[in-house]
Design a protein that fits this description.
The protein is an all-alpha fold. 66% of the residues lie in helices and 0% in strands.
Length: 201
């Protein structure tokens, strides 16, 4: 089925691309949210990811398994670009003359989130990771990809994925005071924000 879908997508079949979106948009959204921590930004990443996927469709191999690693790899690159643009925008805004402060409702909204203290601790811990470590953590731990699929998504060797994930685990365990002998971090998945349920496609 995946091989046939790959061929149809490469050929520019709009119906096939619709099937691709229906099958993987949720996974792409979850991955983007885990990398950014922002719902609106994650939605933008989904749109941009599928636009890029359409633009890059002729580079897709006709043979292969799940298209999820390919899409998550594109989403990872899109997220990098979106965050880079956001930093440039923030820097430009910071240079503008300051106006009267407007009330920020962020704290009020965050206060409605269950276990807000734990969420803040996790976000702080994730913020201390290098970008490459956050990406591999999002793909392997929360995205459910194995080492080979994550390596395919990121365009790096499997050994690089293993080492990045190992460093990320150690840093999170230290900051969150979690046991480091958690194997594949089964227990740590519960500390992550999971906006939507997703299957391992």
């Amino acid at each position: 089925m995946e091989t046939n879908l790959r061929k149809r997508i490469r050929a520019g079949d709009h119906d096939a691309f619709g099937e691709l979106f229906d099958a993987y948009a949720r996974s792409v959204y979850n991955h983007a949210y885990r990398l950014t921590g922002e719902w609106a930004t994650a939605e933008d990443v989904v749109s941009l990811t599928f636009l890029d996927a359409w633009r890059l469709r002729t580079r897709l191999d006709e043979e292969g398994g799940s298209l999820r690693p390919w899409l998550l790899g594109i989403a990872t690159n899109v997220t990098r670009n979106v965050r880079r643009a956001a930093r440039r925008h923030a820097a430009a805004v910071a240079r503008l003359p300051r106006e009267e402060a407007v009330r920020d409702f962020a704290d009020e909204v965050a206060g409605r989130v269950d276990d807000a203290g734990r969420l803040g601790l996790v976000q702080e811990a994730l913020g201390r990771l290098r970008r490459a470590e956050r990406e591999v953590l999002a793909l392997c731990v929360w995205g459910g990809l194995d080492y080979a699929a994550a390596a395919e998504a990121l365009g790096v060797p499997v050994g690089t994925v293993r080492s990045r994930l190992s460093r990320a685990r150690a840093k999170l365990a230290k900051h969150l005071e979690l046991p480091q002998s958690a194997g594949q971090m089964r227990g740590d998945r519960t500390t992550a924000v999971r906006p939507l349920r997703e299957g391992n496609r």
